[in-house]
Design goal:
136 residues; elongated; mainly alpha; 434 Repressor (Amino-terminal Domain)
Amino acid sequence: MTSIQISNAAKAWQNLQHYIPFSAIHSEEQYEQAVDALNALLDATNNDETHPLVDMLETLGELIHIYEEEHLPMEEAHGIDVVHLLMQEHQLTQIDLPEIGSQGIVSEVLSGKREMNIRMIRHLSERFQLDPKVFI
C-alpha cells in the first residue's frame, strides 16, 4: 500500500466513523449507535449477499455481538417461555393451541403445573416451524 493510499484510507475511515462505529463498543450509547447503523446497513443491503456493504455489515454485527455477550447476557428461556412468547407474537389464546391438548391441559401447561410431552413439542415445532429443542 502506498502512502497516498494509506492517506486516502485514513480520510475515508475518519468520515465513516461519524456514521458507523467500527471499533470496540464500550458504552450503551455506542451500542445504540452501532445497532442503528446495523439496521441501516441491513436496509441498504436488502439481503443481497453480493452487495458491497455486506462485509461492513458482518463486521459491525460481530462488534455488536461481542458487546452483547459481555454486557447483555441472555437468560436461558424454557419451553413454556417460548410458548408464551409465541402466543403474544401471534396474538393467540389458550383455545388457539389444540396442539397442546384440551383447554384444561393447555391451562396446566401454561401455568407450569404440567410439563410438555414429546407429542406436544413435536406438534408445536411443526406449527411454528421451529426446532423442537426450543420447547424443551
